[in-house]
Amino acid sequence: MVISYNMGKEDNKPAATGSGKSKEEDNPQASTPKGAFEENTPQDNILLSNILEYFNAALKHKHSKKYNSAVTLFFKAIAALGDLFLLRNEKKIPNSHTKRFLILKNKYQEIYLILDRDFPFYQDSYTNKMNLEETELLENDARELAKKLNLKL
């Protein structure tokens, strides 16, 4: 599974690695996903890494039939994808679900509708048992959002 995207720089500061080498050269096991370009900001790479971590962990839980965990992690991937979308377009990341939803609802309806549809599943995962159908709905939505961001999960 590879996440990749090429975004214009928000700022011109390169990520500090201490040796003048890229993160990958310094540490081949760095948490930056394959395909993350050096012109990304450190925040871009954190979000990309988190998206990959959440999505891969969700897939493992889905295959183990641990649907509540999978739903929670797929939603975290979806929320991080929404944050990446906002970082790309608004140059900032909201610090709460409320702010995230408000900006998306007012400016990016298509993205908002995905998060709005999926948020109740995330909330329900605390008190109800999730099933394969619900899990796959969130998985598909994560893939759809990634596609809108030119990412490949």
Number of strands: 0
Dominant shape: globular
Secondary structural class: mainly alpha
Helical proportion?
A: 55-70%
Task: From the structure above, extract its key features.
single chain, mainly alpha, about 60% helix, globular, disordered N terminus
Give a short overview.
This protein has 6 helices and no strands. By secondary structure, it is an all-alpha fold.
Tell me what the structure shows.
By secondary structure, the chain is mainly alpha-helical. Helix content is 61%, strand content 0%. The protein has six helices and no strands. Helix 2 (42-63) packs antiparallel against helix 3, helix 3 packs antiparallel against helix 5 and helix 3 runs parallel beside helix 6 (132-148). The longest helix has 24 residues, at 67-90. It is globular. Mean pLDDT is 81; it is low at 1-37.
